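Quick one, tokens below:
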């Protein structure tokens, strides 16, 4: 899909910002055990964090298409911001589409300029990819408040979040069935506890397990209409998949560029190793795969921003799948191109071997995406 002049200008501006920080900055913040607050603050000040949020609340008035450009270009510079997926893309989108006026005024300006962040909690230890098995439940106490109880795992950035958008379930008064709901939960609420998960993953953003033990929330903590809760949930999950694709494509581009630089300069015999087809062809294939994944990501973003939630759901899943696969192959080939140097800290590619696989696993596994496509796109029967 052809980009507009505005998109090209945004891409160039964000790329310039990313290059001023680069991979050494991210590596340093990880080693120091802190978050990339300087880059986050500058990106917010320049208006990049909230390009998808409404102008009336301090955002750029664009959509996921613009926000995906921001994350992709930061990733291509070696300085991706994972919380872009969570705070403005998921939480900001849900609140902008379904939040009350008070919720919009309270949260969107800060999410747009980066002065406030929000985490997102959906995954549970016993539910995995089956959202129907979510056991975090909310019940009314009789006085209008909600009481929220449950557990969440692999929740990013809770330690820096001003609130967590928690996916729970409420009981439908008419049918008695549990249905999805979303609540804004302050991390200092009584009964809310977090525990860091020890990850073998080199990332500034930490992962947490959450325990919610009768966390009392006011009535206005519920986001949107109880009866439209499923639509509200998927309003956040589609941008999550699109932004995960952007994250993966950016990472793949960064790894590929490092490999190309090396292949152009490294000479063992008479010519640079990049002249040999055994090196050149796999790198060319990696480039093709990344470009194809970007096209599907752009299609998904276009459909979502146009209001086609059903079409966007299919395309977002495909984009996430394609980008995850392309990223893993690009990183693997980049490391292989550098040989032993690809595993050194000097060249900074080894840490991407683990990071690249996150795009295959989260927020939904590639196997579940293949299930989705086989059922929803191809009309094949389910095996479960």
């Amino acid at each position: 899909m052809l980009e507009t002049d505005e998109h090209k200008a945004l891409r160039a501006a964000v790329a310039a910002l990313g290059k001023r920080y680069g991979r050494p900055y991210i590596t340093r913040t990880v080693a120091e055990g802190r978050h990339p607050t300087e880059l986050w603050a500058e990106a917010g000040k320049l208006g990049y964090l909230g390009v998808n949020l409404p102008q009336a609340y301090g955002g750029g008035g664009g959509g996921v298409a613009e926000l995906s450009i921001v994350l992709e270009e930061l990733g291509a510079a070696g300085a991706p911001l994972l919380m872009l997926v969570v705070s403005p893309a998921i939480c900001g989108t849900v609140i902008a589409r379904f939040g009350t006026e008070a919720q919009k005024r309270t949260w969107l300006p800060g999410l747009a300029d980066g002065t406030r962040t929000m985490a997102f909690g959906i995954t549970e230890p016993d539910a995995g990819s089956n959202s129907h098995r979510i056991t975090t439940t909310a019940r009314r106490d009789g006085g209008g408040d909600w009481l929220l109880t449950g557990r969440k795992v692999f929740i990013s950035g809770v330690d820096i979040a001003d609130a967590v958008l928690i996916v729970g379930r409420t009981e439908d008064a008419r049918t008695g069935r549990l249905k999805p709901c979303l609540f804004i939960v302050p991390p200092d609420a009584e009964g809310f506890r977090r525990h860091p998960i020890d990850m073998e993953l080199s990332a500034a953003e930490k992962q947490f397990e959450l325990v919610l033990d009768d966390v009392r929330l006011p009535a206005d903590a519920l986001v949107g209409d109880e009866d439209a809760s499923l639509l509200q949930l998927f309003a956040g999950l589609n941008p999550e998949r699109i932004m995960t694709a952007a994250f993966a494509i950016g990472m793949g581009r960064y790894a590929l560029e490092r490999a190309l630089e090396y292949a152009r300069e490294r000479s063992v015999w008479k010519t640079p190793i990049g002249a040999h087809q055994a090196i050149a062809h796999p790198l060319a294939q990696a480039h093709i795969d990344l470009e194809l994944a970007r096209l599907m990501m752009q299609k998904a973003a276009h459909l979502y921003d146009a209001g086609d939630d059903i079409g966007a759901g299919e395309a977002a899943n495909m984009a996430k799948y394609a980008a995850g696969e392309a990223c893993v192959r690009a990183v693997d080939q980049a490391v292989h191109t550098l040989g032993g140097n690809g595993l050194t800290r000097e060249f900074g590619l080894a840490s991407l071997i683990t990071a690249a696989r996150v795009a295959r696993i989260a927020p939904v596994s590639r196997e579940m995406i293949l299930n989705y496509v086989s059922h929803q796109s191809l009309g094949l029967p389910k095996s479960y």
